[in-house]
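Dear H.,

Thanks for agreeing to be a second pair of eyes. The structure we're designing against is below in token form, covering all 133 positions.
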């Protein structure tokens, strides 16, 4: 979010849309790759919707073409998009991967989570321990 805010202040909206479009297409393709990998590695798990593998494989072929074309035609925009994605890596390591955090870091992340939940109305905030019904 911070990187997006900085880009919005510095650049124009068209450039921001290009960054986000590249990021979205990259994430869609990775999701479809995950679907195919799960279909091969765990074929017996329950799936509410099951499609023929030809559909995601065809989608991946077009996705790869569009992604390669984007990388070729606008490498700077794609590079900045990748940098925006990589800004989440430190957040992952600080918030998820690091298991034995000091209590002050845990309190900070819990406070930020609760604040974000209240701000965005995404889930019912569970701040400060047990909530009364």
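And this is the sequence the design step returned. I haven't edited it by hand at all.
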């Amino acid at each position: 979010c911070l990187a997006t805010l900085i880009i919005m202040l510095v650049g124009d909206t068209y450039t921001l849309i290009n960054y986000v479009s590249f990021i979205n297409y990259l994430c869609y393709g990775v999701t479809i790759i995950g679907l195919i990998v799960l279909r091969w590695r765990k074929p017996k798990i329950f799936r509410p919707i099951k499609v023929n593998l030809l559909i995601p494989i065809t989608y991946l072929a077009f996705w790869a073409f569009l992604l390669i074309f984007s990388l070729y035609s606008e490498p700077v925009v794609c590079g900045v998009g990748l940098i925006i994605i990589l800004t989440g890596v430190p957040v992952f390591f600080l918030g998820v991967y690091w298991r034995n955090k000091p209590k002050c870091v845990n309190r900070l992340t819990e406070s930020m989570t609760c604040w974000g939940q209240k701000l965005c109305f995404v889930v019912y905030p569970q701040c400060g321990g047990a909530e009364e019904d």
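Two observations from my side: Residues 1-73 form one domain. The longest helix spans residues 13-41.

Warmly,
E.
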